[in-house]
Amino acid sequence: MSGSGPITDDDVDRLYREIERDAESGGYHIHPDRVFTERLVRGLIENERRYGYRSCPCRLSAGSPGEDVDIVCPCDYRDPDLSEFGACYCALYVSKEAREGKVPIGSIPERRPPRAERERARAEQARTAGAPAQLPFPVWRCSVCGYLCAREAPPLQCPICKVGRERFGRFI
Ligand code: SF4
Q1: What residue ranges do the domains of the chain occupy?
Q2: What does the pLDDT look like over 113-157, one tens digit per residue?
Q3: Hey, what CATH topology would domain 9-99 get?
Q4: Does domain 129-170 have CATH number 3.10.150.10?
Q5: Do the beta carbons of residue 143 and residue 9 sit within 8 Å?
Q6: Which residues' Cβ are closer than 6 Å to ligand 1?
Q7: pTM for the full model?
Q8: For ligand 1, atom 4, which residue shows the shortest CA distance?
Q9: Cα(132) to centroid of ligand 1, in Å?
Q10: N vs C: which end of the chain shows fewer Cβ within 10 Å?
């Protein structure tokens, strides 16, 4: 995506279609209201241009990929929010029932832990990452959808939710 000039309708349409295609191919759905969804997509483009990554358009970004990795869209909190509330925090992604209008989409409480808690969790993950395991391969877990794979290194892209390798952490 180009990083200069105003964001055009074409830019928004291109990313909208990319997100919709990836969502549907992974069993996810986006909000049926196109105008609403395009506003969020525009916010993602703005954040990508500002920070270099698609930080959640409904949250305050720290401007550092290391700190914001959990809120790069799709964020680590999307799937639990979809299960519990039928929509992610921004309601860009919605459940099948919500998309079909069978259940209302209400306001979603913030699931992201406070910064200190996130830092503790990251430190713990780093501490255990090198722990020996009695397995022929390490097991990697996608932090967005929970996909697990046992191989030397995580895949370049999650085959389920399409996020990049940087969203995988050592599970075992
Ligand atoms: S999945 Fe929803 S809540 Fe999460 S970053 Fe994307 S738009 Fe925001």
Answers
A1: 9-99, 129-170
A2: 999 999 998 888 777 766 666 788 889 999 999 999 998 889 888
A3: Ferredoxin Thioredoxin Reductase (3.90.460)
A4: no
A5: no
A6: 40, 56, 58, 71, 73-75, 78, 88-90, 92-93
A7: 0.84
A8: 75
A9: 34
A10: N
